[in-house]
């Protein structure tokens, strides 16, 4: 399966090749034939797992999936509504938006039925939408070195509670670029929910 070329201007790799013969360094690896969209789904799950691990959260996956991908739970003595609180997470992934989008928000389009589920209010368990932006080419998704693993690009989150449906079949929502989804953001979400508030 042919993959699209890397985005123009992508930085060159700088990792230590550790004995890889020079003739093999510029040869693309023989990747599997799994559809790129399926690989994108797997990548965003890996990002979520890393964030949850760093935040001290547990993960569970609803079965069967009813429009929500993951339940993230956070136990802490500071919670007032319960000793452990849970947030439902819907993951999305796209390569159609550039990294570090300019401006305060970027546009993302959802099916109306999906938006209705995420926008329902009031709820007993809050929901958030997490959107991951990735490079178009799988060659640019990861950078590995002795000091770390760089997963590209980034996830952003929003709470769509109360958001209206405005399109005929699909509705465009705005995702704030200030809401980078990392372990500190997830801990903040859980602290607010644990105090009886919204994410």
UniProtKB/TrEMBL annotation:
Region (Disordered): 1-32
Annotated protein name in UniProt: DUF4365 domain-containing protein
InterPro entries the record matches: DUF4365
Ranges of residues in domain DUF4365: 45-192
Domain of life of the organism encoding this protein: Bacteria
